[in-house]
Design goal:
2 copies of one chain form a homodimer.
Chain A: H1 10-17, H2 21-29, H3 36-49, H4 55-62, E1 67-72, H5 80-92, E2 96-101, H6 106-118, E3 124-127, E4 145-147, H7 166-176, E5 181-186, H8 192-205, E6 212-218, H9 223-231, E7 240-244, H10 247-259, E8 268-271, E9 288-291, H11 293-308, E10 321-324
Parallel strand pairs in A: 1-2, 1-3, 3-4, 5-6, 5-7, 7-8
Antiparallel strand pairs in A: 9-10
Helix pairs in contact in A: 1-2, 1-3, 2-3, 5-11, 7-8, 9-10
The first copy, chain A, binds a DNA duplex through residues 9-11, 19-23, 25-26, 29, 31-35, 38, 53-63.
InterPro entries (chains A, B): HTH_LacI (IPR000843), LacI/GalR-like_sensor (IPR046335), Lambda_DNA-bd_dom_sf (IPR010982), Peripla_BP_I (IPR028082)
Pfam families (chains A, B): LacI, Peripla_BP_3
Keywords (chains A, B): DNA-binding, Transcription, Transcription regulation
DNA sequence: CTGAAAGCGCTTACAG
DNA sequence: CTGAAAGCGCTTACAG
């Protein structure tokens, strides 16, 4: 029994097991009609030799790479937990994940996504950043693309992160608690989630005649955009309820209020979104809508894999979001 | 000129350009001795046909995958920016990045890293999480492994995140500002960075006879560990300077102080680490040591690639960290 | 139930 | 300067 210095291949296993190379292949894949005893012997020898199939060779033969690409950026827009959730869902389905970090404008990102979808190196592309839907012509043999948060409805989107319906409950509870003046500090409009949050805000604050909205500011998901929104307010703005599109904005809102000498939640109440860790430890602690990013990433990946396999998109059961009332909204509860 | 429905290969390009397949290969790689005019024609035809080399085939032939693995977790311990920096450095060097999300104890992570290093699917492994160095026997043909933050010095480590020298300056400035009582709330001991920060804390607070340390708490990088450390203090702890090993811990320290009615920075001053965005918007804003995580990720990846290529590790020039004095330390400056 | 053989699409000595 | 040919390590009809 010769031991080769380098990594054994299926021929080495075949030789050691006294069978043909094709029998090794069938034994390992479980596909052919191999006698159980032969199969066991091959498996034992393969294990003993530390055999691992060469995935490049398999890929060349099967014309399937077994890889999907995930497009992210360095920015805080994307959470590690979402990437992890997506990666784990991919592994579960037998796919490996290629990470691609992109920067630049939506058009550049779109070009990169299209390039990936056409590269033939991956069977699908999941993008965590908005892309320009017009650029995503999937005529030719391009791989399917799923965007977690899309510019419009022309492309596949998981939609789950864009569900803003809980905000209606938040606003209703604040109105019940006698809040009558509102302000929205939103996210960039190319994020479907930002648009959905703004839309619900507009609809819900418009529902009551005696509820006033000071407007909808377009922010950048950043604390600074929340802070600036507050600093730009007239002195008589409070009492005011600020609906921030994420926790970072909400933090900036609280900071801005502090700089203006406004008490939170006495003069200004604030709600965030995402359930960021820090929100539980600010003073006051931040009311927020928690998001299960790990599961969101997993669902997006499952949707991509369904698209790859031409299966119907899975319909998830449990909700991904939840209202978490904390100190920044004072005594308001639903 | 026949147009095949599927992806063209080098034979298709050869036929369309009226040359042999090997000439196409040489023209694209620029390796052989191809006449400039031939080469140009081949390149033009390849572009026209939208030819892209099949990487699986290339990989099988060259026996090099052109891939590196990055091991991360869902946890906040790892930042997206660090992953992005690593991914971009990999692309720059001609490598693609496979993302592997792991969870579980250090031993499980180590097993996974070893498995990856031996899988033959990647040429190197970069782990963002601590692994058990004993498990990392790289005898056989395993791929090199680099850990960004390692358990001990037996394995390769970038070390740069573990450089805690700036903390000496921070403590010196606080001592100059008449702070005499200190507390350290650190990170888990299997992080080299956590150990280095604690070591510098111990050395620097031990340098002066009239400086007292209330001890070194082992935390979990989490706000809760900072909060608990403060809640466990005796009532007469202030005036106190708390050195937190990261910004999340520092946030929890501020929260705990707030719960105890201690003013920051009046009764307690606090410093964090990492330069997290939220730290600029807390009240008071958090003094911290900023870390360029993108560059840290890039340097770690460059070190891995140097190891793959058997080149000496690159020696970085610019420092990755910087002290950022803000409100949580009051008027102390260096 | 097992094996011989073709072929996936490249790279790279080698011959001319 | 160019081309014919081998071979990387698999999967999978097909013959026996």
């Amino acid at each position: 029994m010769s031991v080769s210095a380098s990594r054994p291949n299926s021929h080495d296993v075949a030789r050691a097991a006294g069978v043909s190379q094709s029998t090794v292949s069938y034994a390992l894949s479980g596909k052919g009609t191999i006698a159980p005893r032969t199969r066991e012997r091959v498996l034992a020898v393969a294990a003993e030799l530390g055999y691992r199939p060469n995935l490049a060779a398999r890929s060349m033969r099967t014309r399937r790479s077994g890889r999907v690409a995930v497009v992210t950026s360095t920015a805080a827009e994307v959470r590690m937990s979402m990437l992890s959730g997506a990666a784990e869902a991919a592994v579960e389905a037998g796919y490996a994940v290629d990470t691609h970090s992109v920067s630049g404008a939506a058009q550049d990102r779109t070009d990169r996504v299209v390039e990936l979808a056409r590269s033939g190196q991956v069977e699908g592309v999941l993008t965590f950043l908005p892309v320009v839907p017009d650029g995503l012509t999937t005529d030719d043999g391009a791989a399917p693309v799923v965007a977690v948060t899309a510019l419009d409805e022309r492309m596949r989107s998981t939609g789950e992160l864009a569900d803003a319906s809980l905000l209606a409950d938040v606003i209703a509870a604040l109105v019940d608690a006698r809040h009558r003046r509102f302000l929205h500090v939103g996210g960039p409009a190319d994020f479907a989630s930002a648009r959905a949050r703004r839309d619900v805000y507009v609809a819900e604050t418009g529902r009551h005649d005696d509820v006033e909205s000071l407007g909808e500011i377009v922010g950048t998901w950043s604390p600074e955009s929340g802070r600036e929104a507050i600093l730009a307010l007239p002195d008589d703005a409070p009492p005011l309820a600020v609906i921030a599109a994420n926790d970072h904005i909400a933090l900036g809102v609280m900071r801005g209020a502090s700089e203006r000498g406004w008490q939170v939640p006495g003069d200004v109440v604030v709600t965030g979104w995402d359930g960021a860790t820090f929100g539980a430890y600010t003073t006051p602690a931040l009311t927020t809508i928690t998001v299960d990013f790990r599961e969101a990433g997993a669902r997006a990946m499952r949707r991509l894999i369904a698209a790859i396999r031409d299966e119907p998109a899975p319909t998830p059961a449990a909700p991904l979001q939840q209202i978490l009332w904390r100190e920044s909204t004072g005594p308001a509860r639903s």
